[in-house]
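Give me the fold.
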Amino acid sequence: MSAVDSLTGYGTSYLDTVKQNSVSSAENAASKDYSSATDGQLMDACKEFETYFLEQMFKSMRATIHKEESSESSYTDMFEDNLYQEYAKNAADSGQLGLAQMLYEQMKRTYELE
C-alpha cells in the first residue's frame, strides 16, 4: 500500500466517523426525555437540532451541483463537510432562522416547563 492509499483511506474513515457522529448526536438529542431539563439544556438541544437540519440542507444543496468526476477527493469532501458543519453551527447560533427558538417554545409547552 502506498502512502497516498493509506492517506486516502484515513480521509475516508475520518469522513465516515464525522458523518456518524453528527447523526448519532442528533439522534441522541431527539431521544432524550427533557421533562426535567433546564432552559439552557433545552435550548442547547434545539440549537443542536437546528444545526443538524441546516447541515443536511446545505449538503443537499451541494449535491445538486455537478462536479467533475476526477476533481472529487476524500480530502475535498472532508473539508466541505467540515465547512458545512461550521456554516450550520454559525447559522443556528445566530438565531436568524428561528427554528431552534420555535422548537424550544414548543418543547417548553409540551413538557410544561413554563
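The radius of gyration is 18 Å.
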